Amino acid sequence: MDSINLMMEEHQYILRMLTVVRKACIHIMNGEAINYEDFDRMIDFIRNYSDVHHHGKEEKLLFNEMVEHLGNLGSKMVNQGMLVEHDMGRLYIHELISSLERTKQGNEESRIDVIANAISYTHHMIRHIEKEDKVIYTFAQKHLPEDILNKVNQDTADFENSAHEKGIQEHYISLLKALEKKYLV
């Protein structure tokens, strides 16, 4: 298994969900009612597929090896770059959930906060994914020793086998396709 290639493939699913989130925000901007069930599904995908599943592999497997084996530069790229950006994405989602709850309770002004946090998340993640694909992963491939890359690949295969048993990929890709069918027509 090529773990970095797999993570880049997962980025494509995440980018597709970001397009769905943007389209849902356009509906709100156009005065339509917020579809809370759909936002719950988008947030489920973001929290469990993008964050737990995808970022879980990055943080627990690849990034740990980069910090351990790539010296000060590897440590800075991960600890002051990628992990900070992961936390920023989590903050946008936390604020999005709070905004949705306030709107649900009748605070119409919070509709703007729903849009602001959702769109900020999409912009943030698009830049983050581009940085990982073009800089971080490439740096790891070029500079991590082959035995460490092989270890990351094996650990990723084990992680994926466990996720496959739970149906993670199938569930979230199916969820993505259903939302795309609704929002990208």
Task: Write up this protein.
The protein has 185 residues and is mainly alpha-helical. It has a single domain, classed as Four Helix Bundle (Hemerythrin (Met), subunit A). Helix 2 packs across helix 6. The longest helix has 34 residues.
Question: What key attributes describe this structure?
Answer:
185 residues; mainly alpha; Four Helix Bundle (Hemerythrin (Met), subunit A)
Q: Which overall shape is indicated by the principal axes computed on the Cα atoms?
A: elongated
User: What is the H-and-E element order?
Assistant: HHHHHH
> How many separate domains make up the residues?
1
Instruction: Extract low-pLDDT stretches.
Output: none
CATH A-level architecture: Up-down Bundle
Q: Could you describe the largest sheet, including whether it forms a barrel?
A: none
Helix content: over 70%
Within the CATH hierarchy, at the fold level, what is the topology? Four Helix Bundle (Hemerythrin (Met), subunit A)
Summarize the structure.
It contains six helices and no strands. The chain has 185 residues and is an all-alpha fold.
